[in-house]
């Protein structure tokens, strides 16, 4: 059995309830479920990695320009 963990502060995109979302991994796929309305969402960790590094690099460049001095 996969461990299901609640996501603190997460809002359900279906019923807009907060702190009702829990997630677990199923065959290397992240599954998110809302215990309030039963909404489920699946996402591949690989597709998420393609988008995030670009945004993180842009943030790092902005921080490098504005030095707190
Ligand atoms: Zn919901």
From TrEMBL:
<protein>
    <recommendedName>
        <fullName>Metal-binding protein (DUF2387)</fullName>
    </recommendedName>
</protein>
<dbReference type="Pfam" id="PF09526">
    <property type="entry name" value="DUF2387"/>
</dbReference>
<dbReference type="InterPro" id="IPR012658">
    <property type="entry name" value="YheV"/>
</dbReference>
């Amino acid at each position: 059995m996969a461990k299901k963990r609640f996501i603190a502060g997460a809002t359900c995109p279906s019923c807009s309830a907060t702190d009702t979302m829990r997630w677990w991994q199923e065959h290397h796929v992240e599954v998110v479920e809302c215990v309030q309305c039963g909404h489920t969402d699946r996402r591949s960790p690989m597709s998420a990695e393609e988008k995030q590094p670009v945004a993180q690099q842009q943030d790092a460049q902005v921080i490098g320009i504005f030095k707190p001095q």
